[in-house]
Each structure stands twice: as structure tokens, then as C-alpha cells.
Design goal:
This protein is an alpha/beta fold. About 40% of the residues lie in helices and about 15% in strands. It is globular and about 45 Å long.
Length: about 300
Amino acid sequence: MTPVIPGFDYQRVPVADGVTLNAAVAGTGSPIVLLHGFPQTHLMWRHVALDLAADHTVVCPDLRGYGASDKPTATDRTTYAKRTMGDDIVALAGELGHDRFALAGHDRGALVAFRAALDHPAAVTHLACLDVLPTLDMWDVMRGTSAAVGFHLYLMAQPPGLPEQMITASADAFFGHFLDIWASDQHEIPADVRAAYLDASRNAVPSIVADYRASCGIDVEHDQADRDASRRLQMPVTVLQQDWGAALGFDAAARWRDWAPDLRHITVAHGHFMAEQAPGDVARALRDLLLATSPHGVTG
């Protein structure tokens, strides 16, 4: 049986163009939506979600193309654009009765959250991004031999066909590789949860690849257009991040500050899967963010 977040109600919520998202919902109080990363599902938030649900309404969806959510065929470049996936999340929150909500994302989910916050500043009150850079900056810093750590980004950016075939041929080895090398402690992802991640990913290869392929094309175009127009995030922003700068030779906080004038950038010693390794620390950081108000009325 697939694991669930205990005490959460599971719903299938229509969002757009016939796409329905699977979402786990619990709690009362001000709403916060938690978006998962790769190669995972909403289950990565299981500990943090239970903590926050004590005094907040918590919504944990599977992203379009992942987990138990719909996986539409990528008929054009927009199907898995982060703008489209961000629109899904705003529509999901609206369907659940939340016109304004806080938003936190990890990894791929953080890129969706970033785009949703830029595109929908009236809806997203607070933003947290865990262990990513915005897409435009990510491609800029991945240079030379250091880019080897992101080999999957380049593989899945290739035209349709070969990446899907290669990954499908050895899906558990491919997705399991990242669960292994990105975990600081193998015990932070229990066997049943790991099996659920692998099963979900194995059954979503085309949509996962399409998500990554969009990040080498239309997502970059959207970020560049916003940078050219000097659009920035208007809400309080918290970023929790490993010390990427030391490894790749750049100032991660400065990169984020270009996008987020009201920024709290926290360098952490936890591994990539920090919501599972150190859920108490992540929950505290999110609670601190939710108490923040933006003092300067940033305009985009």
C-alpha cells in the first residue's frame, strides 16, 4: 500500500484543461501549500506538514506530471512550463477556497513556487524555496567540470526520444541514484517511502523529462523576460540552501537577492532532502517566514 500522510484528507482537484491534481489537505488556519521536488512526491513533506497542520491549513499536492496527479502529454512547450505548473497551484488553492496563501517548494517544486509567486503576487503572500537557484541563474552557474553534478539536467534537456528511452530502460537505477547521492543519511527516507518514490517516478518518465526539458527552454525565456523588465518577488522570501557557492564558486545569496528584495537566505548543513532529514528546522523556518510582513511594498 502506498504510504500517506497520517490524518490528511486526500482529494483530486481539477485545476485546468482537464488536469486534476492529487492533494493531501489537513489543518485549520492560514493556508500554506507545500510543493515537492524530484524524484519525489508530496510525501517528502510528511513530517513538516504534520507540524504545520497544528495551526495552519496545509495543502500538499503532487505536481502535474508527478505522483498520483494527471500527466498530460506534452503537446507543446507550455504543457510543463513552470508558468503552467504554477497556474495549476494557484487554481488548486482557489478550488480549496484560498485566494491568498503562503507557498513553499523544494527542488522542482521550488521552481514552480518561484514562477507562481512572480506571476501571481496578489495570491502568494509568502514564499520559501529549498535548495535551488532560479532557473536562469542555475544555467548561468553550471559551468565547466562543476556542471557534471547536474548531468541529468543536460540529459533531460535533449529533444524527445532518447532521454525517455534511456531512463525508462533503467528507471529504478536512474531515480534511485539521486535518492542515494542527495541523501545525507540513508535512514531519512524509509524503505516504503523510497519504494513509493521509485514507483511514482518509474510511471512518469515522459512527464518528468518534459518538466526538465521545459527548464532548458521556455522557463529560461520567462525568467529572462522578467529580469529584463526588472520584475521581482513582492512578498517576504526565505531560501534554505546548502553551501552551493563553496562548491560551484558563486554567491547564492546575491543571486537570490537580485530577485527577492525581502530575503532571508539561510545556508544549512543538512543534505538536499532537508525536509526529511531536519523537518523541525524546516518547519521553524517556515513558521518564522509566515510571521514576516514586507515593510517596503515592493512593486514588480
